[in-house]
Amino acid sequence: MPYRRSVLIVEDEDIIRTTLTEFLTGQGYAVAHAGRVAAALELAQKHDFDAAICDVQLPDGDGLNLLRRLQQINSATSVLIMTAYATVENAVEAFTAGAFDYLVKPVIFDDVDNKLRRVFEYRTLLQENQRLRRELSKTDYAGQIIGSSGPIVELQRAIAKVAVTNSNVLLVGETGTGKELAARAIHTAGPKKDEKFLAVNCGTRPPELLEAQIFGSESGSGNGRSKGQPGILRAAGEGTVYLDEIAHLPLGTQTQLLRAIEYGESMPIGGTETYPVHARIVAATAHDLMRLVGEGEFQEDLFYRLDGVKLRVPPLRERLDDIPELVEAFIAHHSRAMGKQVTGATSETIRLLMSAQWKGNVRQLDNAIERAVMMCDGTQIEPTDLPPDLLGLGQPLPDTDDLRSALRHYERLHITRVLRQWPDKREAAKRLKLGLSSLYRKIEELGVEV
What we know:
- This protein is of the alpha/beta class.
- The protein has 18 helices and 16 strands.
- The protein folds into four domains: 6-137, Response regulator (Rossmann fold); 150-314, P-loop containing nucleotide triphosphate hydrolases (Rossmann fold, 3-Layer(aba) Sandwich); 317-385, Helicase, Ruva Protein, domain 3 (Orthogonal Bundle); 403-446.
- 48% of the residues lie in helices and 13% in strands.
């Protein structure tokens, strides 16, 4: 289904509001209308409007103040101001407040149609310009730490300090937070940025193959290979070796790595001579290595060798302010990869993304945007393009035939979703069509996590 441009009409005179609504609906627009400022703001909180037509004088407020508030809610909404008095002063005041254009009463339908067409032609040019600017300034997001929130700024400052040294680094953080991006940033900002950056996941291979990949092997060493390989510690030269999920490194392999770090040398599997190790080691883990040391699953000496310079990569829930910037970068990347013209996400979509629980962190957000770009039919990602289970909507009902239990389960999911999107309980109660005291009672009865 083709995307329909949406228009909000704010006019207190019933006949003007009704005829404008009928005309614009006939022109193919999706139209909503309100007679008061309060009703208009409530509609704007629920829906993203492409344009709004606002009367200057309204029963409960001023149209120019309404214009400013509408653009605070959604800066992409273009506003046309209606006035009964066409003066230069009125026009200047409207444009100063941020109006795209103005209409003079009595309203002429052709004038409305022409000015709305100009609005959307301008928006199309603006979106194309923004898309081209993004492509010129940023070929891809890969290898970049995106964000300007406090936790990310702090991480970037720490990376800048660590990078200029040749110290080994331990990165800690949950799965999907971007630890490899941080490792690459350390390498790129360091004095050996022109050397190699080589990465290996310590939890994806059998021990003998993992050891050969890290330390190298001689031909005929019994590892299933007839030909030897140098190993990444040697192949990296004076560059960086990134060891992901180091907690999964077998104890025997840990001993070999410790020797490589302490003495700056290693020996290939099946070899008889050592080779020098000059590479910087950047290790990463989502586990508590100190706990693993206590359980005898990680060598204490290696832990202290790695733990000297430790950087924490924050989870997405601690940097929600970065979501709009991350979404923009992911959309640009996946749009280009799929050959689509998706240029952004609606304000409602961004609000939903910022209220979701990101257990998979930035990786999960990237996957959600990839799916959304794939499903998007227009230029802006809508909430319906997102994965259905993102906000808990796709969770299965409990394994029971008891209708009352199933209803309670759904009720708990639905209230949890609304509270995530609208943390203010008065607003949440209003949207659930419950009294505030009833909402508090439901939260307690259903064990809703607030």
